[in-house]
Write a structure and sequence with these properties.
alpha+beta; three-stranded antiparallel β-sheet; 4 helices; 7 strands
């Protein structure tokens, strides 16, 4: 995987690895999520399918199904904690960790990039709701949340 994707699949639960703009997330013992730039997705899918054809795997292209938000700032953990049941304290949810959870009734995947920077992944069908919720949750801190990453 390292040779074709740029980073190895994490071997430890709820961790992710990074290479440039690519991320490989551990979602379960036999489930990973590979994240890359939209313009690279189709070619990467073809390459991996070709290179891994002799191995047991399932690879599904989800580019149009998921939205990714980058959230950062000194209060990002407090904002997310308003709607997420995970313990997001800085001593518990560390950089390099990821987890699937819910954010105000929406299934999400959270990745802690650095202490006060997260990536939030959700289905595109819930993206408007999540974005509106994030903006509302951030009002008391004077924040605005940037648009989805493309």
């Amino acid at each position: 995987m390292s040779r074709h994707f740029g980073t190895a699949l994490p071997q430890e639960a709820n961790r992710f690895s990074v290479s440039g703009d690519r991320r490989a997330l551990w979602l379960g013992p036999d489930e990973s999520l590979l994240v890359c730039a939209d313009q690279d997705a189709a070619e990467l899918h073809r390459t991996l399918c070709t290179q891994l054809k002799d191995q047991h795997f399932q690879l599904t292209l989800l580019s149009d199904a998921l939205a990714v938000y980058e959230l950062n700032g000194p209060y990002v953990r407090e904002i997310l904690a308003k709607g997420c049941a995970l313990d997001l304290h800085v001593s518990v949810f560390l950089p390099g960790q990821c987890a699937q959870s819910s954010l105000e009734r929406v299934s999400v995947t959270l990745m802690c990039e650095v202490e006060n920077r997260f990536r939030l992944i959700c289905r595109t069908s819930f993206a408007d709701y999540v974005e509106t919720w994030l903006k509302d949750a951030a009002i008391e801190y004077g924040y605005s949340v940037s648009n989805r990453l493309k």
